[in-house]
Amino acid sequence: MKVLHIINYLGRGGAEKLLVNILPVYKSLGHEVAVLQLSDAQAEPSYLKALTDQGIECLSLGTGSVYSPKHIASLIRFLRNRRFDVVHAHLFPSLYWTAIASKFIGYKPALVFTEHNTQNKRAGRAYLRPIEKWMYSHFNRIVAITPKVKSFLEGRVCPAEQITVIRNGVDIDSFQNAETYHKSFWTKEFDLPPNAITLMMTARIQYPKDHRTLIDALKFLPSHFYLFIAGDGPDRAATERYADENHLHNNVFFLGFRNDIPRLMKSVDINILSSAYEGMSGVALEALAAGKPFLGSDVPGINDVVPTAEMLFPAGEAKVLSEKIALVSALNEAQHSALIATGLAHASRNSLMQMARNHVDLYTELLSYKR
């Protein structure tokens, strides 16, 4: 079948990274896949190269704002010309523009939208409710990435029978099989002492991610604990200032966007994700697959992803987080190995291949209805 994924742009967010990882898996299953960006002005070049190197079309409607309604006319023309069997949209406003364009393309592909979050700004605005319901109603099926995402949608914008839960997958092998950096890497690259305990948070530096709580946790830890922040985003400068203002500039390193995340995750002592909420945290599963301890905020999208409550801390509670970090760093060999084994077993059940097969089964079901 011919499948088109529509997204705002292939930037450095979680949904975008997931598409980059999953599209080659669809292709390996024998399907023709392509991705269409509303705008490529903020596209990550390495993501585009990764897809085109594997023979996957990366298309764009231009370089303008993703919020411009002009994309509707462009999308209509594009879909009329290419006639895909399945059109699968992600994120807002791709949700709106795809819904409207589908009314005018002259044929009826299977229309799917994936809801990636358990919350959004539109949900709190009652006057948008009728518009939201109208937009969601144009899709044959809404994919919720966790049961909590389904609960967020159900009844508010669409009926239960329109929703299918398909959990996100991660590239388990790339994290399990990543090469670990030698201990000297931290000394050579960052001048850390031999007894350094390394922590890392991998996430876009923007709300709902909560880097400040993790930075605050360092205040309660000995000076040989060091935090590495992998990722970029609009709040980076403010977060860097916050670390400086709290006299932690020697213990917090901002790595920016990195292509060696699997190696880094496998090399640090503890991976951490501090967040106000998530859709379904791929970072949590990646950290578990890397075979290192993980700690995450006790919020939707993380607490329903990890295998045990031992891996959670109350969101925004820096002191409690510091205590959890100290506890994990002090585990004996047997306790450490047991924690890792639990994480690896859990991560292995959430593969990209299983996710892709679930999507293909859904597409096949929807296309059989149309026939």
Automatic annotation (TrEMBL):
Domain Glycosyltransferase subfamily 4-like N-terminal: residue ranges: 13-173
Identify this protein by name: Glycosyl transferase
InterPro entries attached to this UniProt entry = Glyco_trans_1, Glyco_trans_4-like_N
> Gene encoding this polypeptide?
rfaG
Sorted alphabetically, the keyword list is: Transferase
SUPFAM superfamilies in the record, alphabetically? UDP-Glycosyltransferase/glycogen phosphorylase
One family name in Pfam for this protein: Glycos_transf_1
| GO molecular function terms noted in the UniProt entry | transferase activity
> Source organism lineage?
Bacteria, Pseudomonadati, Bacteroidota, Cytophagia, Cytophagales
Glycosyl transferase family domain boundaries: 186-336
Transferase as a keyword? yes
